[in-house]
Amino acid sequence: MITMMKGKGIPLNYEAHINDRRKEWIVFFHGFGGNHTIFNRQISHFKEDYNLLFVDLPGHGKSPDFTGEENVLAFTSKKVIELLDQVGVRQAHLVGVSLGTIVMQDIATKFPERIKSMVLSGAVGKWLWWGEALGKFTLTFPVRSLLPYMIPFVTFAYIVLPKKNHKKSRDVFIKEALKLGKSSYINWLFTVKDAHMIYRTLRKQGNRIPKLYISGEEDHMFLKGITTHVRKEKEAELLILKECGHVCNIEKYPQFNQHALKFFESIDNEVLKRKLEASSGL
């Protein structure tokens, strides 16, 4: 029997689906402007074999806005670890979409021992030059103080998800962003703009966490940068889904679920194999 546990408010809202405390955990991180409900298409596929923990990032969903003086990314990573401790998760697989992949990578630089493996959907790294220029322009003081935040947000939605087959993801993206608020929008957009910096840190640290990057072939803003990064990262592979844009877990959820679950099972089987070999003295 699977039980559901929720935690509201400070500092991170979450929802947990607990199958068996002895089973492994998967923790899910949504994208910019969304909340944990974007993973509704993943719940039924994963809940029979894993315990699931879904997190609302600060300012998103039912999590309160970030008001501290420290960097919002550092704050979030620290609070995620505190949440894992609270729920009783020593180590977990991670799944992230877009902004969620940046949060995961930051956790990987600071708390790598808490991560078994990672699936990164629509990973955000180096933008194409014109996307980066547009992002910088919208964050200049005159523009960000005078322009309603939803105008550049909707513009970005159509830039990142321009095609007809991206409509479902784009509609979710815009609908949920209406709940975000200007303060959270600005805090997180600065993080997304500088996402490529975290990949430099990972390479310097020699990060060895097993990772599966899943990107759509139509993810034109980020695919080139992520492809370049994966070539340089140990223990990483890139899967590109045909006729798919930025939000793979929605647009191509059957394929996404199949490949992600297969990846996690391969990691767990390898860990179990090593434990059996160690216990038998081989």
Count of alpha/pi helices? 12
Shape: globular
Largest sheet: 8 strands, mixed
* Average predicted confidence as pLDDT: 83
β-sheet strand percentage: 15-25%
* SSE pattern: EEEHEHEHEHHHHHHEHEHH
Q: What order do the helices and strands come in, and which of them pair?
A:
Layout: E1 3-7, E2 14-18, E3 25-29, H1 40-46, E4 51-55, H2 72-87, E5 92-97, H3 99-110, E6 115-121, H4 129-138, H5 141-146, H6 150-160, H7 167-177, H8 182-193, H9 196-205, E7 211-216, H10 223-232, E8 236-241, H11 248-251, H12 253-280
Parallel strand pairs: 3-4, 3-5, 5-6, 6-7, 7-8
Antiparallel strand pairs: 1-2, 2-4
Helix pairs in contact: 1-12, 2-3, 3-9, 6-7
Describe the structure.
49% of the residues lie in helices and 16% in strands. It has helices spanning 40-46, 72-87, 99-110, 129-138, 141-146, 150-160, 167-177, 182-193, 196-205, 223-232, 248-251, 253-280, and strands spanning 3-7, 14-18, 25-29, 51-55, 92-97, 115-121, 211-216, 236-241. The protein has 282 residues and is of the alpha/beta class. The chain contains 12 helices and 8 strands. The protein starts with a strand and ends with a helix.
